[in-house]
Amino acid sequence: MVLSIERALPLLLLPLRWAPAPLTATVLPVMLHNVLADALEDGELEILEGRILGIEVTDAGLRYGFSLVEQRLVTKDAALADVSIRGDAAAFLALAGGAADPDMLFFRRRLCVEGDVALGLSIKNLLESYEPRQHLPAPLRHALEAMAARVKVS
Description:
By secondary structure, the protein is an alpha+beta fold.
């Protein structure tokens, strides 16, 4: 039996559910800071100053909150999010790998935004304009794009 990538993704993400909170609170912001370096440098992420963005990968049971404090991305309690973006792992993979744009995923109800929709739209526009995956090392970026191309989000 061959397991589809859509069904395998939540299983592949399971270790993140058990990662110690101090580890994720340290590693995730550093990764995001590197990927979003241009947006940080240009001041585009100032929209998160004093605000919390929640990201929830529903089928993997993952939920994270992020904010900007003194020009650094930090983790926050996702339950306190001003805006939350929810979706399944396949939708987030397609988005991160450039196989689908956020508008298509929202219209097809693969991603949903709750809370401050204006903040959510600002973040969506920011991610579209900066294409964060371009800051990944080439082998990782190519692997991400190849996996994203195999995901069915229609």
